[in-house]
Specification:
By secondary structure, the protein is an alpha+beta fold. The chain has five helices and twelve strands. A seven-stranded mixed beta sheet has the order 1-2-3-7-6-5-4, with helices on both faces. Strands 11-10-9-8-12 form a five-stranded antiparallel beta sheet, with no helix packed on it. The chain starts with a strand and ends with a strand.
């Protein structure tokens, strides 16, 4: 895949700008990168804190028009796996907290936000946004200290363009590979992949289970200690 990187000094949200550009006809492979986000967004409408010039904040435009709508979770798999592979390259042991948060140990180092645009039942474009903590070490508005590359390695002079190139190269290779390659790699890197852990369902009940699988459509499949399988969509279950 060929990438066309568009740099901005300041944006409210790289995803919002990418959606605007895609709606105006911008081709697949356009990458919106900004030095500062003033209203960055994460999953569940959470705000993403990022100090200006310290972290990688970017959004990628895709037009996977031949991809079935019930297979779009493939994009989540390949992009989150691409980020993990890039962090591994820098000797940071990262994992994917379903569906696509990136963790180091028990702390979040990156968030991914994927948005799709449809015309009727037809997909028009997708935008994948990434906020990766790189050189920032202080997060004053955060109650729980997240991870960053600098905090993990003691180095705070990472080249953001180099990291961007790494993520995009990994994504391109995975995007153009078979779904089996991406799926197996995603499962291997899942946070809490092995063992039983407590979860809370949307009705407030606690479920102790282990990860059994993630469906092509994105559902998390858990198996409890009695061997019963449980399937959950995003926002239907939380890690405890």
């Amino acid at each position: 895949m060929l990438f066309n990187t568009i740099y901005y000094e300041t944006l409210p949200s790289s995803n919002n700008e990418a959606v605007r550009l895609a709606s105006a006809g911008m081709a697949e492979g356009a990458v919106v990168v900004c030095r500062e986000q003033t209203a960055g967004r994460g999953q569940r409408d959470n705000r993403w804190e990022s100090a200006p010039g310290m972290n990688l904040t970017m959004s990628l435009i895709l037009r996977p028009v031949d991809m079935a709508t019930d297979k779009l979770f493939f994009l989540s798999k390949v992009f989150s796996l691409a980020v993990v592979k890039s962090l591994n390259h820098y000797n940071i042991d990262a994992s994917i907290k379903w569906p696509n948060d990136i963790y180091v140990g028990t702390r979040k180092i990156a968030g991914i936000l994927i948005e799709h645009s449809f015309c009727g039942n037809n997909l028009v474009f997708s935008v994948i946004g990434l906020g990766l903590n790189v050189n920032q070490t202080l997060f004053p508005s955060m109650d729980i200290l997240p991870a960053s590359m600098a905090l993990e390695t003691g180095k705070n002079s990472y080249d953001l363009n180099e990291i961007l190139s790494s993520v995009l190269a990994n994504f391109s290779a995975l995007y153009e590979s078979s779904g089996d390659v991406a799926g197996s790699g995603y499962m291997e890197k899942l946070y809490r992949r092995k063992g039983y852990f407590p979860y809370m369902t949307k009705d407030g009940n606690t479920l102790t289970a282990k990860i059994c699988d993630v469906a092509d459509s994105g559902e998390l499949i858990l198996k409890d200690k009695n061997g019963k399988l449980h399937s959950f969509l995003f926002k239907e279950i939380k890690y405890i």
